[in-house]
Amino acid sequence: MTFEPSELTPDRSVRHFYGADLRRHRANGDWSLVKLAGEVPCSKSQLARIETAESTVPPGLSEEFDRVFGTDGHFTRLYALMKHEVQHPDQYREFMKLEAEAEFISFYAAHIVPGLLQTEAYAREVLSCDPETPDDEVETLVRARLSRQERLTSERPPFHWTVLDEAALRRPIGGPAAMREQLAALLPLVDTRTTKIQVLPFGHGAHALLGGSLTLLKLPNSRDVAYEEGNETSRLYEDSQQVGKWQRLYDDVRAFALSPRESAALIGQMMEEHGSCDPST
């Protein structure tokens, strides 16, 4: 069977242009992926992913490309430009694909319950906050969010570890009934064979992840990625040094969180604060 290289789209971002230019120089120099992998500190599979913009470029590799191809700093300059690119257009789609493949998912949420753990009413309230989002689009987004959760109850679910800031549980989203339902949905997941939930109490004070949410994914090929999300921007990290930094920050936060048993007790207490789910009482 003849190998057909993936189609490239160099006009989509600096990252895509970098990959396309790498393939162009490789082809012009009659370098196979195997041959190039023997000359630079990068595997054949990762080189292929760099060419199709599926993987970030590790630090120091651009200088190696310039050495091999004799390109006088061309790839080094492209790399500097790529690092300043806020995000490439497909990063959220790429994150969703990686999340669906992940074997281990670690999550920190500062302000709201993460999408993988949201109830329908809670998700609808969160997704309808933007007044510019039409109602029919909100419903489409709700269905998509709930469909992501199906893998958690599949025959081979990923291991899912969540650290929730106390603020994410105290904010009454959707009214008392919806909030009580959301808190109740968390309790069965606090400490199971494949899920852990811990609450980071207000008493811990300031920490490095206060600004938003962080997801760490461990993939079947031993590849680790991190996804940081804020109000207006988000970013997917694939470089091992950057992912390692986010892993250390996550570990620091988790170290100060309540145990699963203590977290369950606090969540139960919050449920009582939202009153009975029985309207007759």
Automatic annotation (TrEMBL):
Pfam families: DUF5753, HTH_31
Record-annotated DUF5753 domain positions: 92-268
InterPro entries: Cro/C1-type_HTH, DUF5753
Superkingdom field: Bacteria
Protein name: Helix-turn-helix transcriptional regulator
Originating organism: Streptomyces litchfieldiae
Classification lineage: Bacteria, Bacillati, Actinomycetota, Actinomycetes, Kitasatosporales
